Amino acid sequence: MAEQDDITQDSRGITISFTHHGQQHDFEMDPEATVADLAAEIEATLFIPIANQKLMVPKLGLLKSPGFGGRPVADLQDKKITLLGTSSAELESLASASQHAASRQTHLAAARRKQPKAFSQRNPARAQEDNTYTFMTLRPLPNLPRPERSLAFLERLKNDPGIRTAMRAHKFSVGLLTEMDPTAYTESNHEGTTRILGLNRNRGEVIELRLRTDAYDGYRNYKVIRNTLCHELAHNVHGPHDRQFWDLCHQIEREVARADWKNGGRSVGGAEYYEPAEPGSEEEVAYDHGGWTGGEFVLGGGGSGAAASSSGAVSRREIIAKAAEERVKKQKQAEPSEGANDNQ
Prior knowledge:
This protein folds into two domains: 9-84, Phosphatidylinositol 3-kinase Catalytic Subunit, Chain A, domain 1 (Ubiquitin-like (UB roll)); 89-107 and 123-334, no CATH class. 38% of the residues lie in helices and 17% in strands. The chain is built from nine helices and 14 strands. It has helices spanning 35-46, 88-114, 124-132, 147-159, 161-170, 222-234, 243-258, 305-310, 312-334, and strands spanning 9-10, 13-20, 23-29, 54-57, 61-64, 81-84, 135-139, 174-179, 186-189, 192-195, 198-201, 206-209, 297-298, 303-304. A hairpin with a 3-residue loop joins strand 4 (54-57) and strand 5 (61-64). Helix 2 crosses helix 4. It comes from Hypoxylon rubiginosum.
């Protein structure tokens, strides 16, 4: 969370400060100017179209075009302002990534057409299910380097034979599968670093996955991300991390591992599981805090819904606390009771 924005007034006017993609920007404005004038200055300087601009202002809520109107820019004094919006360059980068992916698919399709056709036993009903129980939209973050690589990663998850089998079996349909900003939902303290690996909003409306490493230019282990996706798919049915949730989550993991014909059906195990590390380890990884309900998803906004727009720091603390509670609960379940065999 950015520190308190400084707004000063002198003979030249007032300075409005806000954060965008984690960076602070200062704009000197005439005291008589309106928020619409500020939006025009932002468009001219940061190349973010006015129609794409959203200003998160405490007590004033979400300000966006055409609602800027004649509101005085002085109303933004002493406010912690966050600008949400995608620049023209970022939009062009996303379009380029989508075009690159489409071109690659066209090339692969042409190569397949040149191959001798074998007798097909494709089941039309199965094809219909694959088109229904899937991820309707894949979207990388356009403001990060090489978005086409993230798009290819999301496509690999979508087409994973294990994931497709599990989604057909449970009739899962997800509106948007996207990547999480590496800077979002990360908390460091003397015990290590806690990172949320995935989020599910409104039971499959949006699933976010932490694909990249903290350096932005690398990607996490594919099987770890796939297990993260199994976890988030279980939130399509159960929100809290109760026994029903964990039973379904592990069932989906087994189904995905069995259907992974590319790797001989071997289950994913050992250190590649997503379970949180033991307290005091070098890096504690919090999986997630359960399914989110409600709110508005913002691409690259670090989350979704009211939890992300009201107080990011509080939300992260709540997430970490819930993850810690879940870890303690699982440790207690793993401890054998007196006189009983440990079958955990």
